Amino acid sequence: MMLDLGPFSGENFDPKKWVNSVCQARHPQDSVDNHLVDLELKLQMVSEEISASLEEQSAAALLRVPRATRDVIRLRDDAVSLRSAVSGILQQLKKAEGSSAESIAALAKVDTVKQRMEAAYETLQDAAGLTQLSSTVEDVFASGDLPRAAETLANMRHCLSAVGEVAEFANVRKQLEVLEDRLDGMVQPRLTDALASRKIDVAQNLRGILIRIGRFKSLELHYTKVHLKPIKQLWEDFELKQRTNRHANDRSEFERHSSSNDFQSTSSTISFTSWLPSFYDELLLYLEQEWKWCMAAFPEDYKTLVPKLLIETMAAIGASFVSRINLATGDAVPETKALAKGILDILSGDMPKGIKIQSKHVEALIELHNLTQTFARNIQHLFSDSDLRVLMDTLKAVYFPYESYKQRYGQMERAILFSEIAGVDLRGAVTRGVGAQGIELSETVRRMEESIPQVIVLLEAAVERCISFTGGSEADELVLALDDVMLQYISTLQETLKSLRTVCGVDHASDSVGLKKEIGSDKKDGSTARKVDLISNEEEWSIVQGALQILTVSDCLTSRSSVFEASLRATLARLSTNLSVSVFGSSVDQKQSHVAGEDGNEELSLGGRAALDMATVRLLDVREKARKLFNLLNQSKDPRFHALPLASQRVAAFSDTVNELVYDVLISKVRQRLSDVSRLPIWSAVEEHSAFPLPSFSAYPQSYISSVGEYLLTLPQQLDPLAEGISNNDANNDEAQFFATEWMFKVAEGATALYMEQLRGIQYITDRGAQQLSVDIEYLSNVLSALSMPIPPVLATFHTCLSTPRDQLKDLLRSESGNQLDFPTANLVCKMRRVNLD
After folding, report:
1. C-alpha angle 289/294/300, rounded to 5°?
2. Could you read off the pLDDT of 619-635 as tens digits, one per residue?
3. What are the C-alpha distances in Å from 349 to residues 165, 180, 334, 406, 752?
4. What is d(CA 132, CA 369) in angstroms, rounded to the nearest whole number?
5. pLDDT digits 0-9 by tens, 278-289
6. Domain spans in the chain, listed from the N-terminal domain onward
7. What is the pLDDT of residues 509-531, one digit of tens each?
8. Against a cut of 0.90, is the pTM above it?
9. According to its record, how does it sit in the membrane (predicted)?
């Protein structure tokens, strides 16, 4: 058994734990006693070995102590002698420092003089060489050795830079510029021929000549000039095909008229949209060939030469490209096609009245843009080895023909949406004859409800157009356009609601008691109330049912606009993420390439080449636009953010207006029935004497209150269909039930408030009138109880005080039960019944 002495050196060594652990580690067949005996023997043997070793090492250490003491004394003496020696050396260095500083200063002056003399010698040599070169340069040019001429001009340039601005060499400087232009002119035809004939060696030599005299721009110019002509021929091929087709059509037309047979032409004008892909394919193939050739001919410059060629090509055909796009968009609509006009003409106002931008115009524009976007991706792949700034400039040139359209995108989208919404059927309601109001109301509400999803679809299409055409770079303009369009649409709905008020007979709306919590108006609405004798009961209920359907319009507008705004907010948040990664280089996995602005600040960067989409290319060059856009996109991440702030407020206002209109319609019958209650003659009627014991009042409620009660009891049946329409699934059942109950309570509360206001207007009431009124109030209370509504304390006080005999009113008010009454109302009843409480 081996003994591990490691645990014994630990600070927290516990003998008991150690013994227990060793015992647990024994072999199961060994007895504990034998194991402990062996352990004790081993510990004893190890302890003796440690003691013996300690004694031996202690003795050896004691023998080494005197020797170590002698060594320490010797080292101390050596240190003292070394210190004195170092002190002497330092004193000598201080003395030498003063004299050496003067010597070094003198040597520095001598070295400066030497350098100046050498520079003067070299300058004199350059000046002499410049004079010699100036005198022999004509001979070099006469020999026709262009490389030697380039070397001579380069040496002259070097010598001129060495001598500086010396008046004697001013003519040489002018001569050098003329000679460089002359050499450039001599190289040009040879370079043009080499580029056209694909002579790599010759082109390389001529490039070296131009580089030697600092004329790389001339190489770019010549290269672009040679290759621009065939590319422009590719572009002009469209006009050639157009003319060919027109001639063919003219011939066919002539043959059709001259022939007896009814010959129809089979030729048709080729569209720019169908032709553009072939142009892009041929241009891409041409650029690929040039890229491969330049890679071999100009390995140092091909990454800039070929992109420069494409940039110059787009600059040369840019105006024509914009014009063709404009005409192609106009071809999408027959009206503008007939006039040979397009989007830009409509935006400028140079069009007959009534012709507006349509979605088909922009769809045609997007189709062309998608073709260009495909070409741009191919170009990005082809030029992937080029510098990032060069690649950005190239893609910007590719997208340039669409820039004027993108800058006016907000104006285009507004025009489209306003035109499309104007086409939605939102005619206001027209007052019809008796019996037809309900039909007119129902038809108008149906048009309003059907228009909401139509408008939302139009708005969603606008969002898709913005993403497809601008990549989201015009999202800020889109949001403003959507908000304005929604405002216009909701304003139209508001105007339609005003026409519905007339049809419903509540155009001069009353005080809306109960809805606005403004109880009390003693006006008589005889001029505006719908007369019962003119409108049948069925017509009344059809108007009520139609008015209730307006709530569905409000609910639909609120829910649809909320969903659309949430979707728009999600789209803005997604754009925020995508464009932030693209424009500000948020990627941590890819090496970021920074693009410095004009002021040198590297604020904008790209996280990888894959980020170079159309929106990125635009935003990196319009920094103010980018900041404005990203401010909006960052705000969209806040849950409280409203993408359409003005429209959201107007939707809420529309909902309030709808609720007010519906309430006025529902309460109008009650208001009409209760309009003259305070002036009924029965309240002041005197008890009639009879020979027989007859009751002095009717045991039944009067017709005015019974009609109100029947109306309130029938109202839930009218609300049920509306609740079922709102409840499309079981999850909305509770919400629909709450909706119906809420409106039933709202109307019942308003009716009760109107009734109590009429009761307060009674000036005098006899005992007979009080007994009749108590029956009427009791009937209304039963109706409210049937509707599960609490009886208002004021109404209960009216009933109690009116049903109590006149001579017992004082006692009632003074009794304990009088504490449950509303005292202002009780005092009013006493005043009405001429009971003196003093």
Report:
1. 150
2. 887 788 888 888 888 88
3. 60, 53, 18, 18, 60
4. 62
5. 999 999 999 999
6. 6-125, 216-256+269-388, 412-648, 674-832
7. 444 434 444 333 333 344 334 44
8. no
9. Peripheral membrane protein
